[in-house]
Amino acid sequence: MKLPHSPPPLSDLLSSIGPGDLPKILESQSGPLVHEAYLHWDELRHREPPSGLDHETWWLGLRLARQALLKPLPLLDKKGQPFFFGSPDPVQIDLHHIDQDAAGEIQSATETTPASRDRYLLKSVIEEAITSSQLEGASTTRKVAAEMLRSGRPPKDRSERMIFNNFLAMQAIRDFKNESMTPGRLLEIHRMISEHTLDDPGDVGRFRQSNDIRVVNNDDGTILHQPPDHRELPQRLERLCAFANGDEHQRPFVHPVLRAILLHFMVGYDHPFADGNGRTARALFYWSMLRSGYWLAEFISISHILRKAPAQYGRAYLFTETDGGDTTYFLIHQLTTMRKAIQSLHDHLARKAKEQRSMERLLAESPVLRARLNHRQKALLTHALKHPGTGYRIEDHQRTHAVVYQTARTDLLQLAELGLLEKIREGRAFVFVALDDLADHISHVGGRIP
Q1: Distance from CA of residue 248 to its chain's centroid?
Q2: 3-state secondary structure at position 392
Q3: Which residues contact 341 (CB under 8 A, 6 or more apart)?
Q4: For residues 363 and 442, is the Cβ–Cβ distance under 8 A?
């Protein structure tokens, strides 16, 4: 990732035009967007300018059109100047959809019971814990990490510890989502996220003690971002927490979703910790979303989307820093990410509904079998049909469905007795393995049960 070209200073552009040029420039620019996109100078300079304009005068018109939209925030850059934000049409449209999807009702044939809700919530928290840690270097595969979290086994290495810590932090956020944010609470979140993962254990749960933390280009060592002086961090985090705890009476008014995104941005910008800043930033985002009533945030993973295009994530930060603190670039990027994450949820629900209909058709051939199996067993068989050879352990089944050990044990033993899972001893415990021809076994068992 390279440092983007900074825009020409507005004062230089204004001084370079003639007295009669400004009306023409303003008339040629219809608003803050270019073909519905909020372009940075680094992108604009590669586009063909409107007739009669060069790139500099085109940018001048665009920047002046944006001035009317931008509002100052009570959040400061490292020079003590306020950051700004705007709400052009793309922001308004995304907020409208997120308000509908993330704070309203969602209907699904598969996610209507508390048990199914808890099962998918666990899956979502696991996904966010894994991908958020992978964004910062955790190298464990998703399959191994998911097995660790579902089984409850201790982490084996630093990468697994990062994921394990993130999982615990995401669960803890649900417990204090209605409480105010303080610097002490933020340090506690960092402690949960970073414990046993840092080179210096003394850096866990404390602000960085020096200015040698930088964001650099891994290819050539170019410094992309130098965070504020570490001595300013206590005061900066006090300001950040005051912003985090604000409500509709705070001026300027900041939409709750934009507030959550800006909290994410500021932790990344301030880099208050020696390591783990990204994970802490995304955890703070989730806290803010849940605190504002966006319950669907528990079921989506923004890191899953960010991991697919990490360079765009970084550029959204750099566009803001190189264009006078205009956070609109970062807001648009994160709103787009959120909508993709929400769409991923809807796609998942559609797949689950289709899988459930397939299972129902299969079980329809045996009303007796359908009546004998509970929803946990049906969910396991639905998964097993897609993943032959998978081994299911009692502890995993227990955690997935939030039931006691005896209930989980009974579920698996009954499926083994029906010949739908193969019971195999592994050490002192048993593993229940999905059959390769499970669909045939379900049909056969359903036909012979009296």
Answers
A1: 24
A2: strand
A3: 300, 301, 302, 304, 305
A4: yes
Q: Could you tell me which of 52, 74, 64 has the C-alpha nearest to residue 327?
A: 74
User: How far is 407 from 422, CA to CA, in rounded Å?
Assistant: 19
Contact 127, 299 (CB under 8 A): no
What percentage of residues in the chain have a pLDDT greater than 70? 91
Q: Which two tokens stand for residue 143?
A: 């399959």
What pTM, to 2 d.p., does this model score? 0.79
Which tokens go with 71?
């509002």
Residue whose pair of structure tokens reads 């001595």 in the numeric block: 231
> Angle at CA 349, nearest 5°, toward 343 and 350?
90
Dihedral angle sign, alpha carbons of residues 299, 305, 307, 312: negative
Domain boundaries, the chain: 10-68, 72-346, 366-448
Tell how far CA 358 is from the center of its chain: 31
Full strand arrangement of the beta sheet holding 391-392: 391-392, 429-434, 421-426
Rounded-to-integer distance, Cα 182 and Cα 43, Å: 38
The highest-confidence range among 92-101, 146-155, 379-388, by mean pLDDT, is: 92-101
CATH number of 366-448: 1.10.10.10
Closest CA to 180 of 257, 291, 95, 269: 291
Environment class of 32 (CB within 10 Å of its CB; exposed 0-12, middle 13-18, buried 19+): buried
> From CA 345, how far away is CA 106, in angstroms rounded?
10
In whole angstroms, what is the distance from residue 52 CA to residue 88 CA? 26
Poorest-pLDDT segment among 102-111, 147-156, 182-191, 428-437: 102-111
| CA–CA distance, 279 with 268 (Å, rounded to integer) | 9
Q: Is the pLDDT of residue 23 over 70?
A: yes
Q: What's the average model confidence in pLDDT over 338-353?
A: 80
Structure tokens at 393: 């352990």
Neighbour tally for 112: CB within 10 Å: 10
CATH 1.10.3290.10 is the classification of domain 72-346: yes
Query: Contact at 8 Å (CB) between 421 and 384?
Result: yes
For residues 433 and 396, the answer to whether their CB atoms sit within 8 Å is no
Is the fold of 72-346 the same as that of 366-448?
no
Reduced to 3 states (helix: H, G, I; strand: E, B; else coil), residue 223 is strand
The answer to whether residue 115 scores a pLDDT higher than 60 is: no
- Ranges of beta strands (E only) in 223-309 are 223-225
pLDDT band at 109 (very low <50, low <70, confident <90, very high): very low
The two three-digit tokens of residue 106, written as one number? 């969602």
